[in-house]
């Protein structure tokens, strides 16, 4: 069991009635907690959502607070402090004075810094410190009026082939405030990508998806991400730029295996972080199995840190891998799904 969950269970006497776990790890905490309270989950991680569904736990996937208001909430600290600020705002706008918010996280994940955000809403105390984690409690004495999600968006402009694109990024989404270097290195090559039915794996705020739709109105884009905030950001980016919504299909996924099987191209600045931890499974899986989802002569375009061994993995799967660019610490990698390999 995740050490954060172990710390929560050490203080099970604080939990009763209905308890909403926000952003919890995929482990057995809910079943254990159900001996003392009625637990449900709100998560924006689709892989975790599927896990809880398989465990018959009541779970909500998305960017909005679940429809049923609980007696208590336990927030597992997200990596982004901006995302935690949004989550706290949403929570206190749904709860009432006197209800409790619990916050749990790893010390190396910044739980003490995160706990300072609780002070604005009521008396805050540390309940436990163990397993390199901390558990905090706040009794709400100040609530807020719920603000529209659009007020939490960061915007910036990107230029792609003489086109201007305004990017909308919600809290916690990769590269929320400005274009990341890897995507900037890949953008000049978008005009070379085969048109048709395309997938943007790890779509983030929709920079690649929207740019591909803007470059060719005939392109159909499957924007894929594990994160509900990323999928919502991509939709906002399309809408703000007046792009045809029929070009966009939002796809909540756990990996490339969830992609359609008849794609003309897959483009990606693949993710390699899960929370505060590094995790290459999704991006390595993309390199090794993308070909299964491509039509004959379909294309794979990836931008990745120079030090990663993706060219080797792609060559093993496709029989070849071209390095289209190597600059600013990133490589643009290309492969074609030719027959016979």
UniProtKB/TrEMBL annotation:
<keyword id="KW-0963">Cytoplasm</keyword>
<dbReference type="InterPro" id="IPR046977">
    <property type="entry name" value="RsmC/RlmG"/>
</dbReference>
<protein>
    <recommendedName>
        <fullName>Ribosomal RNA small subunit methyltransferase C</fullName>
        <ecNumber>2.1.1.172</ecNumber>
    </recommendedName>
</protein>
<keyword id="KW-0698">rRNA processing</keyword>
<feature type="domain" description="Methyltransferase small N-terminal">
    <location>
        <begin position="5"/>
        <end position="156"/>
    </location>
</feature>
<dbReference type="GO" id="GO:0032259">
    <property type="term" value="P:methylation"/>
</dbReference>
<dbReference type="GO" id="GO:0008168">
    <property type="term" value="F:methyltransferase activity"/>
</dbReference>
<keyword id="KW-0949">S-adenosyl-L-methionine</keyword>
<comment type="similarity">
    <text>Belongs to the methyltransferase superfamily. RsmC family.</text>
</comment>
<dbReference type="Pfam" id="PF08468">
    <property type="entry name" value="MTS_N"/>
</dbReference>
<comment type="subunit">
    <text>Monomer.</text>
</comment>
<dbReference type="InterPro" id="IPR007848">
    <property type="entry name" value="Small_mtfrase_dom"/>
</dbReference>
<comment type="function">
    <text>Specifically methylates the guanine in position 1207 of 16S rRNA in the 30S particle.</text>
</comment>
<dbReference type="Pfam" id="PF05175">
    <property type="entry name" value="MTS"/>
</dbReference>
<dbReference type="InterPro" id="IPR013675">
    <property type="entry name" value="Mtase_sm_N"/>
</dbReference>
<dbReference type="InterPro" id="IPR002052">
    <property type="entry name" value="DNA_methylase_N6_adenine_CS"/>
</dbReference>
<feature type="domain" description="Methyltransferase small">
    <location>
        <begin position="165"/>
        <end position="333"/>
    </location>
</feature>
<dbReference type="InterPro" id="IPR023543">
    <property type="entry name" value="rRNA_ssu_MeTfrase_C"/>
</dbReference>
<dbReference type="InterPro" id="IPR029063">
    <property type="entry name" value="SAM-dependent_MTases_sf"/>
</dbReference>
<keyword id="KW-0808">Transferase</keyword>
<keyword id="KW-0489">Methyltransferase</keyword>
